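Narrative of accomplishments. A recurring question from our advisory board has been how the design workflow behaves on a single, concrete structure rather than in aggregate. To address it, we present the structure tokens for one chain from the evaluation set, followed by the sequence designed for it. No filtering or post-editing was applied between the two.
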């Protein structure tokens, strides 16, 4: 119950985070749109009512006539009809002649500051304590008995303008709110639909057997496919690790039973046998113990190689350093003190991408096989062939017969020449290293058609720097 609650909470948390992000974007967009709508509405209202003021002022200016050498105003009804479109606003007007003398209207109506040209002049000023908008237009006369200008000023409070701006803003906000709700609902449905592959993947993983590490189908959106691909690669590594562990346990249980029983039998016989046969029993016991030690060493080496292949990232390695390190370890002097081992390396670096420990382990097994089953002298060398690098071990013998070559390299595969002295894991370790770093193992006669050579072939590193120049 707790597990299901945790999973539900996790899914709800992801959905809530995405929805919160979408809602935040919509809120920010709504605030921006609201301010923009208010600015647009205020500008539209100002332009509309400014035209009304200009129309009323022009009607009044058009009604001015010159009578007996003086301007006379016959107030038109149409001017007040225009101003009456803003029924709740107060208005004021003033008609002034030459020198600013009031011809008609309100004396407290403000006049435009500065010179008024042929175009209407708008300005803002208070009207009985309320903010108002004013316009001044000029009508010029040039007659025989009168020459001069008449200024007509008309003002109106801003209540209708503000109501129009707020009405436009409210309309825009309502439309935007409806669209926002639709977007939120659509985003919720889209997000839930996009998360369905995750839910399906979670259900499939929950229903899987704990030991089922087969790849999952990488269907669905690209982002989910990338995640499934990464998970499949991880499960592949885990499967290889589990498989190596199973093989190690199985091999240990199967392969150690016989040598341990033989050691126990030899020890019991040594205790029960007469003293004359004791040296022979002890000699057999030592041989069995050495064989068991070799088997354990190679089994652990193979497990180490497989483990490092999945966990140690490949690094640039010079195969000459690997050959030198193996030879300087002097293990060959213990295995075959009388054998002659020759090192064949050039003066140029031969770089590969791999793990130095794994490569050294593989080459040690190549050299050990040559010393156990081949003929002296034995050569350990490094060379290149096109885009590949090679590290090889060659002995002077003819090698195993062709029918045996196909089987060599499998786990616990021994040739008849081993006579029980080999665990059958040497070339298996080499093949595991080759596969881990994209290489292969070749077996056959040497370049001159003489001797038997086993070669670990690996791709050369693409960029090896100055050391590999030329």
């Amino acid at each position: 119950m707790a597990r299901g609650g945790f999973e539900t909470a996790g899914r709800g948390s992801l959905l809530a985070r995405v929805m919160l992000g979408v809602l935040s974007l919509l809120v920010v967009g709504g605030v921006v749109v609201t301010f923009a709508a208010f600015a647009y509405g205020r500008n539209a209202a100002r332009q509309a009512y400014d035209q009304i003021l200009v129309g009323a002022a022009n009607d009044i200016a058009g009604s001015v006539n010159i009578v007996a050498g003086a301007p006379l105003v016959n107030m038109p009804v149409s001017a007040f009809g225009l101003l009456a479109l803003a029924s709740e606003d107060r208005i004021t007007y003033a008609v002034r002649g030459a020198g600013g003398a009031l011809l008609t209207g309100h004396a407290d109506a403000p006049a435009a500051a500065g010179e008024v040209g042929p175009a209407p002049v708008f300005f803002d000023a208070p009207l009985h304590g309320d903010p108002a908008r004013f316009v001044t237009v000029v009508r010029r006369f040039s007659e025989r008995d009168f020459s001069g200008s008449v200024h007509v000023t008309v003002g109106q409070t801003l209540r209708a303008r503000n109501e129009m701006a707020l009405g436009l803003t409210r309309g825009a906000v309502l439309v935007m709110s409806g669209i926002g709700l639709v977007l939120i609902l659509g985003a919720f449905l889209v997000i839930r639909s996009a998360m369905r592959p995750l839910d399906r993947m979670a259900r499939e993983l929950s229903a899987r057997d704990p030991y089922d590490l087969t790849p999952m189908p990488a269907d669905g959106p690209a982002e989910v496919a990338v995640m499934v691909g990464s998970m499949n690669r991880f499960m592949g590594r885990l499967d290889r690790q589990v498989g190596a562990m199973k093989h190690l346990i199985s091999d240990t249980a199967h392969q150690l039973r016989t040598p341990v029983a033989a050691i126990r039998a030899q020890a019991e016989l040594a205790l029960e046998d007469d003293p004359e046969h004791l040296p022979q029993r002890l000699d057999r016991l030592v041989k069995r113990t050495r064989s068991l030690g070799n088997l354990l060493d190679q089994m652990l080496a193979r497990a180490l190689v497989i483990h490092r292949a999945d966990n140690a990232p490949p690094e640039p390695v010079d195969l000459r350093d690997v050959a030198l390190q193996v030879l300087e370890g002097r293990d060959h002097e213990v295995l075959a003190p009388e054998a002659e081992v020759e090192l064949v390396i050039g003066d140029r670096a031969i770089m590969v991408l791999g793990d130095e420990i794994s490569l050294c382990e593989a080459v040690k097994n190549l050299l050990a096989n040559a010393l156990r089953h081949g003929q002296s002298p034995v050569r350990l060398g490094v060379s290149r062939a096109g885009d590949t690098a090679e590290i090889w071990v060659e002995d002077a013998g003819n090698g195993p017969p062709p029918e045996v070559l196909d089987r060599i390299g499998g786990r616990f595969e021994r040739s008849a020449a081993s006579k029980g002295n080999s665990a059958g894991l040497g070339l298996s370790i080499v093949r595991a290293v080759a596969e881990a770093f994209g290489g292969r193992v070749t077996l056959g006669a040497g370049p001159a058609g003489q001797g038997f050579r086993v070669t670990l072939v690996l791709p050369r590193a693409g960029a090896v720097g100055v050391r590999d120049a030329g």
